[in-house]
User: Fold this.
Amino acid sequence: MGRTFISILLVCFSFCMLKGSTVTENYNFKNIVIYWDASRAQHTNDHQKEFDFLDNYFNRYPNSKVKLIIFNTHIISEKDMMIKSSDWDVLKAILSNVTYDGVANYKLIKTDHSVDELMLFSSAAAYLGEIDVDLYAPRIVALASSKKPNIRLLYELAFYSGGYYANLTEVDIPKTVQALQEKKTLPRLQFVKDKSTTNQLISGFVYSNDEPLLNAKISIPKKNIATLSNDQGKYTIEAQAGDEIVYQYNGKKTSTIILNNEKTINVALVDTDTTLETVFIKSEVKTTANNVLIGDKVVDKSSLGYDVQQISSEAISADEVNLGEAMAGKFAGVQMGGGNDPGQMIIRGFDSFTLTNHPLFIIDGIPLPRSRPGNTSPMDLIDPNNIASISVLKGLAATNRYGSEGNSGVVLIKTKTGTSKVLDKPIVEKELQIDYKTYTKPLVVAKPFNSPYQSVLASYSSIDLAYSYFVEQVPQHLNTISFFTESADYFFEQGAKQKGTNALTNLIALFPEDTSILKIVAFKLEQHQVYELAQETYKKIIDKAPTLAQTYLDLANCYATAKNYPEALKLFKAITTNKINAIESFEGLQNQIRNDFKALLKKRDNSWNLNGIPKSLFYTTPQDLRIIIEFSHPQTNYKLQYINPNKNYFILTHTTEENQKTLLNELKEGITSEEFVLSATEKGTWFLNLILPITETIDYENPKFLRIKVYTNYNNSDEKMDTYHINLGRVSGSELFAKFTI
Assistant:
């Protein structure tokens, strides 16, 4: 009897111990999915911080189930594994050997996993697509490890899933893991848009060393709310008297202020290694306005939070006979070129990654061609006696209105007459006249350019070895656009579509703000039928520069080419009815829009919603030839020579010298294409010859691209369309590139 009792006790004790052990094991167990961003933008991240985080995490959860998904433009690998007794060596080995290449495609991130947590290791600095968050998404933990992550995107992604965000370069990692264990929540970020709210709104600017701070955190800890400053350093937050407002930025001293009755608080944060203290500039009432011109708006200078310099016509003397003399010595931090040449001006504090440090000049709202190495724009054509005011914008605010074109600063000139009056050279736009001459050279279409980059890649015995060589060479060619486009062409031609896509989209990671380079990427993606990413690239251009009318038409046509007819129809309707909020008018593109919309409507079936479309768009007129010339960069100079079957030719020009008014209007309206439709032409074989003006600088490292579409027998049953992609950096003088029959 005694033995039986002892046995029962032992069994009960063992069961309790086993049960207790099971509870402990479950408490230390996690089922997670890890999305690891392997794009080029992650190459410089602090990966050791990421490993430190995972080490702490698996020490806290020693037995875990992990699904690892490594991605960039595509899913590179997907692997399930078990972590036992905190041993994550296999996972670490995989992550240590990741090659960072291409751009991140966030559409690949799926949030419908049945797991405890979804971890995203990404800075979100350069990406395409958007994450579609499932209604029942797991807790998302967004982890960055770079100096300038996209905090807003990552923070809100985590917040709305009840998750967590941390930049591992700024936080105490063990405490971050503890916060995850305790399921701490994030304060809600405020981005106040409705100024009619009854709550008190506090606004201002956060800056340091006279430069605005992007993504500075402004929070009221006791209310669990926060916001971030924008690219001008501006913020707005709801607060009341007595609230404690905290200002934080990585590398700067955290500062706190108790709110009284202030409406505006501008904050100058100081470096952590200085003995200086934060400067608060507070205001309860508005002071007398000191207005300055910013883009197309006149604003109070005191509301900006950073320095904008301006002079009026009174500061320009009669003996200053050109723009350079009118500006020389009057703006702090502005260095004129030799002989006071404003075309070679440099605004101190800018460090360009795209080979030019010269500012953008805007005259009466019209951007002028910006100087680049070896190609100085003639700014001295501007009459100083006609200048009403000159403003110089510094800091990130210079890019707010003009995007990447303002990366090196902006000089705003307002004239007295409201038009860009020039000295002694009135702009005369030539009427289109067909003046035939005889073509005397041999009619031989040029062979494709023999790229030195492609020749080296072709010398490798396998496509994988060639790609490994390409990846190794990337650091030596970060500023060479042709290296990426020509290498990508090679991989596409070899049937290695994913490698070609990655090679090309490195440019998005390297130049995420340069809309001209983004357009090159979109052109090339369409060329190689990677339509979905091409569409996302056009969307990115729209996000960066929403006033460029051309991009909306490019996107609509890309939808149509990819046979995504519902989206194409929807966008064409919005364009033709002028429903794009950022665009005042598509006037300069009207003919091209109508012709492209008509081409789309010819593909219609009974499922299409055609309500509201004018009947005129359903009728087409047969023509012999339609040519569309699209250019990646504004202010691209070229001449196109049309050679008919009788070896007679005429030339249509697109140059600053001969078509200055047209090019300025294109800049103003955001147009980067032109269209020609010809009828009653000679039947037979035609040729097209591209001619570069002598003044056009050949630059293979940072080239301009043309995409030329040639429609023969246009709007006929036997219509044919050929597309030619031309890298102007590889054209020496001229290139006979097309041969077709009418």
In short: Residues 82 and 276 are 51 Å apart (CA to CA).
